[in-house]
Specification:
Layout: H1 2-58, H2 65-84, H3 87-108, H4 112-115, H5 118-153, H6 157-163, H7 177-180
Length: about 190
């Protein structure tokens, strides 16, 4: 009788621990998905701003077609990568887009009359604000990824993670040195 009761108590405790560990992993995985959705919102905002910015520059620097085409191509590549959902592919495409945006802003410095246009400066401000929001969202996402990956790797929650097929997530990292520098917005 005592042995049966002890075994029953042990099974209940183990069952409660398994349920708690499983729920913790689900909660952390969902926070990571939410953080990715925050990045997604900010990236879409940036994608929406870029065509307006390119159009503003076209009127003043139409002979700089290559720079404008590169920004447009990088934007398309980033949007396509995002639809695929692969964090590493998105990060790589975003690195390329950041680099082309830097060349667009560098180009604008050659045209003082462009910097004087109110719509262009507003777009620069909005894009700069969006870049800051993307950085904040990326930090939030990476923090959640680190928490999830740590829980998946640590004993004893790794047992539950393996039992229920929890997978590690990829960090949203900047791989290129040029992309590590902030977008320069000058007036």
């Amino acid at each position: 009788m005592n042995t049966t009761l002890i075994l029953l108590i042990i099974l209940v405790v183990v069952g409660l621990w398994l349920a708690g560990a499983f729920n913790m992993l689900v909660r952390t995985r969902n926070r990571t998905k939410e953080a990715w959705a925050d990045i997604d919102v900010q990236l879409k905002r940036r994608y929406d701003l870029i065509p307006n910015l390119v159009e503003s520059v076209k009127g003043y620097a139409s002979h700089e077609r290559e720079v404008l085409e590169n920004v447009t191509k990088a934007r398309s590549a980033a949007m396509n990568a995002e639809q695929g959902g692969d964090v590493k592919a998105v990060a790589q495409a975003e690195n390329m887009l950041s680099g082309t945006l830097k060349s667009l802003f560098a180009l604008s410095e050659n045209y003082p009359q462009l910097r004087a246009v109110e719509s262009f400066t507003k777009l620069q401000d909005e894009l700069s604000d969006t870049e800051n929001k993307i950085q904040a969202a990326r930090r939030f996402y990476n923090t959640n990824v680190m928490t999830l990956n740590t829980q998946i790797e640590q004993f004893p929650t790794n047992i539950v993670a393996n039992m229920f097929g929890f997978k590690k997530s990829d960090f949203f990292e900047l791989n290129e040195e040029a992309a590590r520098e902030p977008v320069k917005v000058s007036f």
